[in-house]
């Protein structure tokens, strides 16, 4: 699409508000997904570490009791 000026670009033929609003909402949602994924990854990693520590403790208890 070819625009005569930057003002025409921002206005988008009268639909600029809706176009830029949709871009803004999309950007916010994508950033939210990135943050959520990052936090979820950290939660899963902590849970895995906790489970590994628990299994190690159970293994040490079984070895120590002679089972």
UniProtKB/TrEMBL annotation:
<comment type="similarity">
    <text>Belongs to the CcmD/CycX/HelD family.</text>
</comment>
<keyword id="KW-1133">Transmembrane helix</keyword>
<dbReference type="InterPro" id="IPR007078">
    <property type="entry name" value="Haem_export_protD_CcmD"/>
</dbReference>
<feature type="transmembrane region" description="Helical">
    <location>
        <begin position="15"/>
        <end position="36"/>
    </location>
</feature>
<keyword id="KW-0201">Cytochrome c-type biogenesis</keyword>
<dbReference type="Pfam" id="PF04995">
    <property type="entry name" value="CcmD"/>
</dbReference>
<comment type="function">
    <text>Required for the export of heme to the periplasm for the biogenesis of c-type cytochromes.</text>
</comment>
<keyword id="KW-0472">Membrane</keyword>
<keyword id="KW-1003">Cell membrane</keyword>
<dbReference type="InterPro" id="IPR052075">
    <property type="entry name" value="Heme_exporter_D"/>
</dbReference>
<protein>
    <recommendedName>
        <fullName>Heme exporter protein D</fullName>
    </recommendedName>
</protein>
<keyword id="KW-0813">Transport</keyword>
<keyword id="KW-0997">Cell inner membrane</keyword>
<keyword id="KW-0812">Transmembrane</keyword>
């Amino acid at each position: 699409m070819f625009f005569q000026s930057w003002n025409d670009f921002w206005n988008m033929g009268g639909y600029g508000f809706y176009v830029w609003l949709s871009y803004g909402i999309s950007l916010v949602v994508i950033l939210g997904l990135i943050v959520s994924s990052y936090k979820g990854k950290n939660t899963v990693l902590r849970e895995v570490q906790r489970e590994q520590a628990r299994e190690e403790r159970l293994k040490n208890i079984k070895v120590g009791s002679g089972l």
